[in-house]
Write a structure and sequence with these properties.
Two copies of one chain form a homodimer.
Chain A lengths: L1 H11 L7 H8 L3 H13 L3 E5 L3 E6 L6 H4 L12 E4 L5 H10 L7 E4 L20 E8 L8 H20 L4 E3 L3 E4 L2 E13 L3 E11 L14 H7 L8 H20 L3 H10 L7 E5 L4 E9 L5 E5 L4 E4 L3 E4 L2
Parallel strand pairs in A: 3-4
Antiparallel strand pairs in A: 1-2, 4-5, 5-9, 6-7, 7-8, 8-9, 10-11, 10-14, 11-12, 12-13
Helix pairs in contact in A: 1-3, 6-8, 6-9
Chain lengths: ~325, ~325
């Protein structure tokens, strides 16, 4: 708490020193206690200049997924109202799931700098190198039935794609159901998990894994990162993970509140406008079969409509899509 | 293990004593060890006569929901392949859910003699007086998407209603989505819970609470039990809880394997044939509204079709049905 107070004061005067007397008065703690808290902030990665005569000055903030940074001027009401961050977890989705089972509020965001067992869809792995990505899980508690889940997933894909576009300028596209691609390579995966009764959802965990600073060789084949794509585009821009995380949270807030106000049609329209697939030839890999055809449409219920070569339209609820070149 | 072996030998000769020498030979343990195991069986409720000269004889088996009894000549392949039983738990669904999260096999059945926090739909309570009912949860791992869950729920209702009819002779009926009624009163509730990804179910917990020996005054208003209904029908039959539990497990096995073989149409037809509602005037209570009309049909997707007074047909996915008299 004192850490946060001191940080807030230092943030307000980025160009000037704040004397330790002033910090003592504002925080109501002693000079030596102020010093201790400054040391704690430094340990978190804040660069703070200390001058015996002038006092303290904030030089640089860390690009870390810590609550103080992610929540700073975040401006959302629901998503990110609480932020928990960890140096390393097995899986942010598992952490969030356990918290949700114990009743934690909607909008709680779990972040980690590294995942030992990052999870992809259907028990697959999500490669999560330390400090290279955004590994984020968000607890939602919408009043919907399990059959309405696919729209939540589309909403999440729209929110993340928009955040990536806005923050990086990269042309993020969506591959059904919810991969985010840049230049045809996977930059982000979304894993939706839920606990539900037959006719009502208890909670949903939206897991988002976005590759930010990861190098191509640390990623699986077909994967890419913000850094790699900016480099490929000869763009010298650097993207702060903190800003990226905040952008995703704000975007989720916007799309989720639109969805709750009945805006699913608009979300599906946005999804379609960013789809990497329309009219493309695709192969859908199902547990026991494969179907090939043309990506025809997305239904309002979130299913993929595949046009088989026979002309028959087939609704796909589950499966992996491979683009056929 | 020795308990089970001794029990198996005694079961085989219900009219004769088995000498302790014979038991020693068969179990390869000492006389005093045999005695100790017989004592353990007695503690579980088995009545075993011991005669110094003749040996042991099984007089009566307990009407308890213990694995040795429930699994005896059960004859199923999947459901009840493993049975776990507890004297008292908070909720059999919670126990089964935790086991399923840790990977326990499909078909595992969790039973309890008493629930401290028996769960009904939507966070409600299920009154679970000790040794008066069947409190059972079953782990299923079907390869389906979350939107196919309602059919699993209908399947469970059909299985339980058929088991109640077969074992008790009572005319069990189904109220959407999955209450079992006898003479218009609730005798059984089913709670379906699941963990799922957007497009695939990890596992389903089918929770079944059936009132067997409970007295009317120990049950909530509108509730009834097998015992009360048999009494009302002047039927002197007594129903063993063990037999009832076995009957439900066998019935679940039959309907579930039918469903897996693509028999959902037949299951829905059976559901309709046992429905307490068709053509009845009903009120559907939704979170923020109420709808009144006539129960028109059940759709193949498991939703209820309500005919409003305006003639409009409305699909209902979630909600509580009240019969209007």
């Amino acid at each position: 708490m004192h850490d946060e107070k001191i940080l807030r004061v230092l943030r307000k005067s980025p160009d000037e020193h704040v004397s330790s007397e002033e910090l003592c008065v504002l925080t109501k703690i002693s000079r030596s206690a102020v010093w201790k808290h400054v040391e704690a902030l430094r340990a978190e990665g804040y660069e703070i200049e200390a001058s015996p005569h002038l006092g303290y000055r904030l030089i640089a903030i860390p690009d870390a997924l810590i609550p103080a940074e992610v929540m700073w001027e975040l401006g959302t009401k629901t998503i990110g109202k609480a932020v928990l961050s960890y140096k390393k977890v097995d899986s942010t989705n598992d952490v969030a799931y356990n918290l949700a089972e114990n009743g934690i509020a909607e909008g709680t965001v779990v972040l980690a700098e590294e995942q030992a067992k990052g999870k992809g869809r259907h028990g697959r792995k999500w490669v999560s190198p330390p400090k290279s990505g955004i590994y984020m899980s968000c607890v939602l508690r919408p009043e919907i039935a399990p059959n309405e889940i696919p729209v939540i997933t589309l909403m999440a894909a729209v929110a993340v794609a928009k955040a990536v576009r806005k923050t990086t300028g990269l042309q993020a596209m969506i591959k059904w159901p919810n991969d985010i691609l840049v230049s045809g390579r996977k930059i982000c995966g979304i894993l939706t998990e839920m606990k539900a009764e037959q006719d009502s959802v208890d909670f949903i965990i939206l897991g988002i894994g976005l590759n930010v600073n990861a190098s191509a060789r640390s990623l699986p084949e077909g994967g890419t990162s913000v850094k790699e794509e900016l480099k490929a585009a000869n763009n010298i821009k650097t993207v702060s993970r903190t800003e990226m995380a905040k952008s995703i949270i704000r975007s989720l807030e916007a799309e989720y509140s639109l969805l709750k106000k009945g805006g699913s049609e608009r979300i599906i329209a946005e999804w379609k406008s960013m789809s990497a697939m329309p009219g493309s030839r695709i192969r859908v890999v199902l547990p026991n079969a494969e179907l090939e055809g043309v990506a025809h449409d997305i239904d309002p219920d979130g299913s993929l409509v595949l046009r088989l070569d026979s002309g028959i339209l087939k609704k796909i609820w589950s499966g992996d899509v491979v683009m056929v070149r």
